Amino acid sequence: MDTQLKKGVLEMCILIQLGKKDMYGYEIMKIIQDVFPEVYDGSIYTILRRIHGEGYTETYMKDVPSGGPARKYYRITDSGKKYYSRMMTEWSRMTESVKKLIDN
After folding, report:
1. HEC string for the chain
2. What is the pLDDT of residues 51-73, one digit of tens each?
3. Mean pLDDT over all residues of the chain?
4. Is the separation of the CB atoms in 62 and 71 below 8 Å?
5. How far apart are CA 51 and CA 77, in angstroms?
6. What residues form DSSP beta bridges with 74?
7. Which residues form the Transcription regulator PadR N-terminal domain (predicted)?
8. Residue 4: what pLDDT?
9. pTM to 2 decimals?
10. Which of 61, 65, 71, 87 has CA atoms 20 to 30 A from the CA of 24?
11. Which residues on neighbouring strands pair with residue 58, listed in sequence order?
């Protein structure tokens, strides 16, 4: 898969997960890698840092029940929800267009 296309899809997948619930980085990474096993850990963290820098997520620290070190959790912001909504609209349009080409 083209690198730029993959980055966009991974970004959308991360926002999908964060739209469901707040998550910490490793948790997000494992879910994404279950679907895209060829994706490196660093790719996920790079995207998380970028979307955080763009204001689409915010972070907070949360203690671990087992007494380990606190984890950094990501939460989607209102701006991130709007961005995610635009991404999903564009994705739907694009996949419908490709489907039309396939079906014709």
Report:
1. CCHHHHHHHHHHHHHHHHHHCCEEHHHHHHHHHHHCCCCCHHHHHHHHHHHHHCCCEEEEEECCCCCCCCEEEEEECHHHHHHHHHHHHHHHHHHHHHHHHHHC
2. 999 999 999 999 988 878 899 99
3. 92
4. yes
5. 10
6. 23, 59
7. 14-84
8. 73
9. 0.86
10. 87
11. 75
